User: Which sequence fits this backbone?
């Protein structure tokens, strides 16, 4: 099998002339790929004389500048790299269609769920229920990213899900046709996060904050960090609640342990053992020596309760007792253990409302609410988007050993106009994914793979108050062209995408100063 790469002009008819030469020489074409000014061929040719003649004739075609032999076509190389990656990837990773069919998966996934060697696999009923799968896709279509806690064979697992869109990677309603799912055990997540966080813990003055709102919050957090009272941090998912918790710990007790527990990830029995520990032979299968819980291990430092609103009523009572008395008992013994631990809790829910609905203990709420911080959503502090994006870009380049990269002005505009349902975490993921998918030092919209921008009703009303209908239509049209042009970077391509004439689109690009 012979593979060739042809460097050629982008002119009409070149491909047809190449194919004619292959037909005249009775060479079978087994594969063809097109790229900008490049044509890749996979030929079934065994005789060297025949292929030499073809190479000579290809060189004579007007517009072809070079013909080189290559080992693999780009598509073949990508497939080989993906296969190798999935074989070596240590996590349980799987790509699934909306109907549950498994499209690709790591060897670790097949091993973890004992699915190796089973043909035509569906994830439904073997790993997830149909209801769980539907819930994942509903969340992806709404938010573009989701996390889920499930229990499989009495083992708690965390799932992170990322969407795969059909229309060139851009989010459209009901357009999420597949998803990539990453399965992790809570203990595995905790170990990885602790190792990673230890290397990147930031003090308050190192946290990126340009907006006055965030600067004031960090100033308040630093002032209260040295106090022994419990701290409750509120904010949407991905806003940086744990980052602030770790900075508080670093300010108060540097060098001491910082341990975290996700209240939504473990059932009552496991969570009680993890939090309070157990004595020897406390239950069947327990270690004879017993095991210290997180409260003991965090003595002198900080214990962080993520998603405190998901803590069961039973554990709420036990945590309240510890906060009131500073002591607790291991499971299976009446001996009290006293520790000095700073308790920090976080939630993305309205705990006061949950108390009114009898879904969270009011006495525990007031114990936790002695000190309180509310972290604003990223869309409420737009000034922080550019410095955060540039920070993640620089950090990502450093981790990958790459030269410094920059975001184009259009990419920055896209970032600032997006609604960010996943907040800072989503911004970090998008920047890192962009770096992973290109070797370019200039990151543009086509690298960001952003969902479609969402304009809130409040933004629309605000604009409407200050502009005429004609002005509003021009503003919308300009922003639409700004968003689409990087993905369709010529007047002809954009005209085809919008169903307009080439002349009309060319005039609009000139009017809005978007054309080169």
Assistant:
């Amino acid at each position: 099998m012979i593979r060739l790469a042809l460097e050629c002009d982008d002119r009409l008819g070149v491909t047809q002339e190449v194919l004619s030469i292959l037909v005249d020489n009775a060479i079978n074409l087994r594969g063809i790929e097109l790229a900008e000014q490049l044509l890749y061929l996979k030929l079934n040719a065994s005789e060297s004389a025949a292929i030499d003649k073809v190479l000579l004739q290809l060189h004579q075609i007007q517009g072809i500048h070079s013909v080189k032999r290559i080992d693999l076509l780009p598509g073949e190389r990508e497939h080989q790299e993906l296969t190798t990656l999935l074989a070596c990837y240590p996590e349980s990773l799987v790509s699934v269609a909306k109907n549950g069919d498994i499209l690709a998966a790591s060897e670790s996934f097949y091993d973890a769920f004992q699915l190796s060697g089973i043909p035509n696999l569906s994830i439904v009923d073997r790993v997830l229920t149909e209801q769980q799968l539907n819930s994942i896709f509903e969340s992806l279509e709404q938010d573009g990213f989701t996390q889920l806690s499930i229990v499989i064979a009495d083992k708690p697992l965390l799932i992170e899900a990322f969407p795969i869109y059909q229309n060139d990677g851009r989010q459209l309603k009901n357009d999420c046709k597949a998803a990539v799912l990453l399965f992790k055990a809570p203990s595995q997540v905790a170990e990885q996060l602790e190792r990673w966080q230890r290397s990147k813990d930031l003090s308050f003055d190192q946290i990126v904050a340009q907006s006055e709102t965030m600067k004031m919050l960090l100033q308040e957090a630093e002032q209260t960090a040295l106090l022994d009272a419990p701290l409750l941090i509120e904010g949407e998912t991905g806003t940086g609640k744990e980052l602030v918790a770790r900075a508080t710990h670093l300010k108060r007790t540097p060098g001491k342990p910082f341990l975290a527990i996700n209240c939504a990830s473990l059932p009552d029995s496991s969570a009680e053992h993890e939090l309070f520990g157990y004595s020897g032979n406390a239950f069947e299968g327990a270690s004879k020596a017993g095991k210290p819980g997180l409260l003991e291990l965090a003595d002198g430092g900080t214990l962080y309760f993520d998603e405190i609103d998901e803590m069961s009523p039973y554990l709420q009572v036990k945590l309240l007792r510890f906060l009131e008395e500073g002591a607790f008992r291991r499971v299976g013994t009446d001996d009290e253990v006293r520790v000095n631990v700073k308790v920090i809790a976080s939630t993305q829910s309205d705990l006061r409302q949950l108390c009114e609905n009898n879904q969270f203990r009011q006495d525990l709420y007031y114990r936790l609410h002695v000190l309180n911080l509310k972290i604003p959503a990223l869309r409420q502090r737009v000034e922080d988007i550019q410095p955060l994006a540039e920070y993640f870009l620089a950090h990502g380049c450093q981790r990958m050993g790459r030269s410094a990269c920059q975001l184009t002005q259009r990419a920055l505009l896209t970032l600032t106009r997006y609604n960010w349902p996943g907040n800072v975490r989503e911004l970090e993921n998008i920047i890192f994914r962009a770096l992973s998918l290109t070797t370019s030092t200039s990151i543009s919209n086509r690298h960001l793979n952003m969902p479609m921008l969402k304009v809130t009703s409040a933004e629309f009303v605000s604009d409407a108050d200050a502009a005429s209908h004609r002005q509003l239509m021009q503003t919308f049209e300009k922003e639409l062209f700004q968003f689409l042009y990087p993905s369709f970077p010529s007047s002809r391509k954009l005209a085809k995408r919008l169903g307009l004439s080439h002349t009309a689109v060319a005039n609009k690009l000139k009017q809005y100063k978007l054309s080169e």
Summary: The CA atoms of residues 21 and 54 lie 7 Å apart.
